[in-house]
Amino acid sequence: MTTVSVENNMRKRLFIGLLALSLIFLLLIFVAAWWLVSQRELLANKVILTAVTGFIIMVFFVLFLGFAALVWSLWRSRTIPSLQSVISTATNILFPLAIHLGKWVGLEEERIKNSFIQVSNHLVKTKVRTKPLEHILILAPHCLQWIHCPYKITIDINNCRECGKCQVFELRERARRYGTKLMIVTGGTFARKVIKDIKPQAVVAIACERDLTSGIQDIAGIPVIGIINERPEGPCANTRVDLNKVDEAIRYFQKGGND
Question: Which of 15, 83, 195, 252 is most buried, taking the most CB atoms under 10 A from its CB?
Answer without folding.
Answer: 15
